[in-house]
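This part of the workshop introduces the protein records we will be handling. A record pairs a protein's sequence with a compact description of its fold. As an example, a complete record with its sequence and its C-alpha cells follows.

_____
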Amino acid sequence: MPADLLALDRDSLLRVLALCSVQDVLALACCNKELSQLLKDDDLWQMLAEQKWGHHVRSLAQVAPGGWAAWTRHRLAASSQPVSPLNLVQEQYQACPFQHIAACLLCTRTTGGTAVRHAIRRFLDHWPTPSAVIDASDDSMLEVLQPLGLQAVRLQAVWGLAHDFLAADWQSPSDFKHCGPFVADSWRIFCRGGGSLAGVGDKNLQRYLRWRLHGKVEEAGKRERAAGSRKRRASPPAEAGTLRSGRRRNGTAGGSGGGGAQASPPGQRRMTRAAGPSGTGAATSAPKAARGRRS
C-alpha cells in the first residue's frame, strides 16, 4: 500500500492524505521509509493543509518556518471513533474537525430531527471547508440555515469559526467565540479520541462514552432516575408529629412589645410583681392558693 501511494503524483498523494487522520498518516509513514522521509518535508504539510481547507490557508494562517507539520496535524482528526447506535448528529463528521465543530454549532438549540440533520448536511455539502464558507454569500447560507432557526446568529458563528480555524492559534474549540463546553467536549471525544467522562456535561456525550466503554446503549435518563431513587431510599421519612410536638414543647407567647415569655409547666410557681417601697417592682413568688386568700 505505501509503495502504491509513492507511485502517485504529488497532487494525487495529497488528495489521499487529506482523507486520512493523523494517526493513519503516521501509520503509513511507519510502514515505508520513503514515505516517512516525504512527510518530513514541511512544504508537503502546507500543501496538504491547502488541499484540505482551501486557498485561504495561505492568506490567513500565521505559521513560522518549519511549523506547517504541527499546524496541520493539530487541525486534522487524531483518530477515528466508532459510530454508535445513538446516531448523534456530529458523529457523522468526526473525520473532519472543521465540519465536526461546525455541525456542533449548527445543531445547538435544535431538536436534532430529520429537518435539522438535512439542513446541516446540505450546508456542509455546499461549503465543506473554511475557505468555502468565507467565500460564500450570506444570502445563500442564510437560505440553507433557515430550517434551523436563529439563522443570522448561526451564520455569524460558523463564519467566525471558518476564519479563526485558519487564522487563530487555538488549542481547543473553546477558544472560538461561539463555542462552549459542549462543542469542546465533542471535539475532544470524537476528533482527539478522548474517553474520560470527567467534566462532560452533555447527557448524549455521556451516553456515547458509556456505549464506547461498555458496548451497549444506555436508556436516556436511566442513570438520573436510578440516582434519584437511591437518594430517596437513603433519606428516611420524618417521624409523624415531630414538628407539632416540637412546637408544643418550645411554644412561646408573644407580648405587645414583640417579646415572649416561655409557658410554665403545670404546678410550677408563677412570678408576680408587687410594688416596692420606692415604687419599683419587686419580683415575689407565691402559690396560687396563697394569692387566692389575699383578697
